[in-house]
Amino acid sequence: MAGAAPRKNEAEKMRKLAQVKEMLERRIANTEAELEEQKTLMEFVNQTLLEKGFKRAEIAKSKRHEPQALPPVVEYETAIPLKAATGKLLANLHMSRESMRVVVAEGEAFNVKTPPFHQFLVERVLSKMQEKDREAVGRRELPQDKALAYELILEGDTLKEIQIRNLTAGRLRELRSSIHWTLEKMHEKTSKDA
């Protein structure tokens, strides 16, 4: 009987250690994902600095402080081609510090009714991000004008552009991969149907 208690304590210790191990693995995975996001953002910043040069960036900064009657037009600093596995261009992703514009490639006709566009990209990604921001605005943790906003530019049911404003660095990578994955799946579906 005396030997049963130490075995039970040992089993409990092992169970707790396994839980700690699982928690650490999750935290390491999250930290690595965050590091990748930061690296992507750093690449974007470095590329922009190289393309624009420090002098041009300083001029743009000083112009931003001048009072303007209209909101400033977003100047997209980087363009990233989004391609299918076959190498075919699906869209071009234009990025600025807080905005993203996805322009569908010429010759591509993505119908917004084709899965997974609405079910995944709109409902599970964009709408969820927008909902989180609305809640943060309600709790006064985020100003209304900093909440994520998006617009789908359509011709009938055909997607022409996706415009997203008020991005945070943490969402940049997630949106880029979600949009790319969605367009690739839509392309695969329409290629099979053709």
Name some characteristics of this structure.
single chain; 194 residues; alpha+beta; 6-stranded antiparallel sheet; 3 helices; 6 strands; 56% helix
What can you see in these coordinates?
The chain contains 3 helices and 6 strands. By secondary structure, the chain is α+β, with helices and mostly antiparallel strands. It folds into 2 domains: 1-69; 78-193, no CATH class. The longest helix has 61 residues, at 4-64.
Helix/strand layout:
Blueprint: H1 4-64, E1 78-83, E2 89-95, E3 100-104, E4 110-111, H2 117-138, E5 149-155, E6 158-165, H3 169-193
Antiparallel strand pairs: 1-2, 2-3, 3-6, 4-6, 5-6
Helix pairs in contact: 1-3, 2-3
Counted beta strands: 6
Class of secondary structure makeup: alpha+beta
Largest sheet: 6 strands, antiparallel
Tell me, briefly, the overall form. Answer: extended
| Cα Rg | 23 Å
Question: What order do the SSEs take from the amino end to the carboxyl end, as H and E?
Answer: HEEEEHEEH
Strand content: 15-25%
Helix count from the secondary structure assignment:
3
Low-confidence stretches: 54-74
How many angstroms separate the termini?
A: 74 Å
Give the rounded overall mean pLDDT. 79
Compute the number of structural domains.
Answer: 2
| Share of helix, binned | 55-70%
